[in-house]
Amino acid sequence: MAKKLRVGVVFGGRSGEHEVSLRSAESILKALDKRKYEVVPIGITKQGNWLKAGEAQKLLPGEVISGGSVGLTMVGDPTRSPLLRTDGAGAVAEEKIDVIFPVLHGTYGEDGTIQGLFEMANIPYVGCGVLASAAGMDKVIMKHLFREAGLPMTDFIWFTRRQWESNPKKVIAAVVREIGFPAFVKPANLGSSVGISKVKTKADIEPAIELAAKFDRKILIERGVNAREIEVSVLGNDEPTASLPGEIVTGAEFYDYADKYSAASHSETVIPAKLTAGQIKKVQQMAVRAFQAIDGSGLARADFFLTRDTKELLINEVNTLPGFTSISMYPKMWEASGLPFPALLDRLIELALDRHREKSRNVTSL
After folding, report:
1. Residue 180: pLDDT above 80?
2. Within 13 Å and on the Cβ side, how many CA atoms surround 150?
3. What average pLDDT does this structure show over 113-142?
């Protein structure tokens, strides 16, 4: 029998999307083929503590794994095994990990920071690298890259929290003048619709910005459009492919956090989306182009607007570590495209190992 790969599944984290990460981790840990993989759970608390296996389990919504009780930490020294464990006496021993599967959404997990640690440790990991993760997390930088790639999008402005606090009247005037209503106010570096508000009047702007400013120092404001919400899953490294598209039919004013994750949500997903063959081909091509614009690898979900009046496709954003919960679109769209969840996880791990082999060809000394 072939030796099992040791897969470190990292979840939780210092993020406003901590709870979403736990739900995604639960789905992945259930679906990973235990005949192929030895799973090492690594939980990170909201305070940033890296937990041993037994305590990591307690973070999860349900009982999905069994494991010991060893303390874990990760180091960026490539001459050692990246994962260290401590015994009861405080002694340190090295523990081998073949590949890391980060299931971290939001800051300190999806923004390139932990990917940098994996790079320093020289360990293969699932998903986008440092650059793509950082660009995909920062919606302002992402939109500039999309513009450079010739991808159409809605009008937007952005500013810092300090600019807002120093001259709120100037910011409000810019929103009214350049964006108008309705508009969406967002933290530039967050996902899962955390901190997002839809504003319809001038009076709505201030509380919406104050909410967004709680989560990030950069605030983005986009022009609202009357459109269908279309999503596409992307998979691959240098030659990415796109899934069949799906559509979100929201049950709320917009697809907010509660509508995404609440049991009382009235939103619906339509997979595949009811589009013409031409629209499907175009949105798949645009998804791949958006993925390549940020130098993506492994996986991402590309989100679009399809305007109801002109039928124009507009790129909204790319999510480099999309949700893997039981209701998440990324795995559901691949399943509709003929790739079931366990096989999708296998493919993601293969892509991580392949990218690591490719990067290992680089010369690092002369």
Report:
1. yes
2. 4
3. 96
